Every structure is written in C-alpha cells, then in structure tokens.
Amino acid sequence: MSFKVGVYVDAENIRLSGGFKMRYDVLRRFAERDTGLVQRLNTYIAIDRTRWDQDPSYKEKQTNYLKRLREFGWYIDEKEVKRFRDEEGNTVTKANADMELAIDALIQSDKAFKVIAASVPWDFKSKGDSLDTWNGYREEREELFSYVEQNRVEGVVLLSADRHRSDAYRIARPNGYDFHDLMSSHLTKPAAYSHPTLEDALFSYNRRPAFGLLTFDMAAPERTVRYQIVNIDNDTVYTLEIPLRTLRLTR
Questions:
Q1: Which of 33, 40, 75, 108 is the most exposed place for a label (fewest CB within 10 A)?
Q2: Beta bridge partner(s), residue 38
Q3: Would you say 77 and 44 are in contact if contact means Cβ atoms under 8 Å apart?
Q4: 24 and 57 Cβ atoms separated by less than 8 Å
Q5: What would the pLDDT profile of 104-123 be if each residue is shown by its tens digit?
Q6: Cα 92 to Cα 62, 87, 136, distances in angstroms
Q7: Residue 173: pLDDT band by 50, 70, 90 thresholds?
Q8: Hey, which residues does 83 pair with through a beta bridge?
Q9: How far is CA 4 from CA 31, 41, 111, 133, 185, in A?
Q10: Would you tell me how many other CB atoms lie within 10 Å of the CB of residue 230?
Q11: In 3D, which of 57, 19, 50, 25 has the Cα closest to residue 38?
C-alpha cells in the first residue's frame, strides 16, 4: 500500500546550520522508501541577486546548482536576499522562507486534518507578557492565520510546548473557525518545577508529569481529533474532542 509524501526544505536555514552539500537525490530516495508516493518536492533557496549581477563565479555556481536540483525533480522557490541596516549601521541580509514554506505545505495538502507544530505557545495568554512565545511575533502569527482563512484551508490543529504543564486553548477568529492550541511539555519535570495552571485555558494540568496524546478518528461517522492528557500513572486526566466540522469555514 502506497502513501503520499511531501518534502519541504528550508535550504537557507539548513545552510546556516552547517548543512552544506546536502544530498537532494538521497533525500528523494528516502522519501520514496517503502512505497512512498512523492507528491511534492519543494526547496526554498536564497539567491543574492546583487552578487549574481556582480560575481560571475557565484552566478555560475548557483546556476549549475539549481539546474542539478531540477534534474532531481525538485521545485525551487527562489527567495531573493534583502539587505537592511541595523541600529549600528551594519548591513544585515535576510531571505526568510519560513512563512512561504508553511503556507505551501498547508495549501498543497488534501488531508482532512493539518497539524502545525511550534516550539512555543500559540496562545498569547499562556506565558503572560513574555515575548519568547508567539506573543513576540504577533504580526507573523496573524499573517499565517489570515493565509489559512483567505485560502480556505480547513482542519488546522495547532501544537506547541515550552510550558511545564499541559494545556488546551481556544483561539477565537472573527473571520474563520476557531483554532485550538494543544500544548504539553511536562513529562520529565517533577511537580516542584511545574508552571502554575491558568484559568483562561480550556484545561490546564500540572499535578503530575504527563504527555499529550493525539488520536485522529477517521472511521467514526463524524471525523474527530481527540487530545488527551495522560500522566505517568497512566491516568487520563483530561480529554478534548474537536470534530472536523468545527474546523471548517462557514462563509
């Protein structure tokens, strides 16, 4: 039985993390293993047009590199490098592809449920005024949520972490369906190191180390995602069921 596979590569992020000379041919073969049916092979690559116009060697290397990737069957999304001046007058270059990659993955998926996972909470209330959650990137969060609504992407479920407890939040949206932020990252921390529970959450648990369990029920008459908090005593302390029909646009 074959299964569909989509691969989305943030090439600039990988390069900055030391990922030079990544083997795109090997990555494709890995995606096709065990009867995998590749639907998308997208890579997002930074191109410095200023350097392209001024440096023949750079232009030749980049041209050959892009040509080779296309021969391997990859679609290339070229992100133009932009230059900015920081507060100290230094030139800073950026070519972020994070948002485009996430949006493409959502729009190009035909699955009933789509999961977006982040390492920090999506809900602004989860960590007070701290800016190291999406609270510090409000415009970017709104851009992503608005793209979901404008492109009528349904079935989106949000996962997050970075709080020593297990929570669930509802994020109300005036122009679309409400999102749910499902957060659990309290499995290895004893109770003494947990964060306080919050009344604003749909539920909030910190009494025992626990993990979040997601179950996608596609066989039931009403397709549902079930989020359960299970502690280390194997007790299910909270359950939240989100029917697919509540993750659909009504207008």
A1: 33
A2: 5
A3: yes
A4: no
A5: 888 888 889 999 999 999 99
A6: 21, 10, 21
A7: very high
A8: 93
A9: 9, 12, 10, 32, 30
A10: 19
A11: 25
Give residue for tokens 């029917």.
243
Q: Which residues contact 100 (CB under 8 A, 6 or more apart)?
A: 44, 77, 79
| Bridging pattern class, strands 224-231 and 210-217 | antiparallel
- Tokens at 116, concatenated: 């977006």
**What is the pTM (predicted TM-score) of this model?**
0.80
Is 232 within 8 Å of 209 (Cβ atoms)? yes
**Each residue's pLDDT tens digit, 144-153:** 999 999 989 9
Could you give the domains of the chain?
Answer: 1-102 (no CATH), 111-251 (3.60.21.10)
In this structure, what token pair is assigned to residue 194? Answer: 């947990």
In the numeric block, which tokens belong to residue 226?
A: 């079930």
* pLDDT tens profile 204-251: 999 999 999 999 999 878 999 999 999 999 999 999 999 999 999 876
Q: Which of 131-140, 168-177, 207-216, 240-249 has the lowest mean pLDDT?
A: 131-140
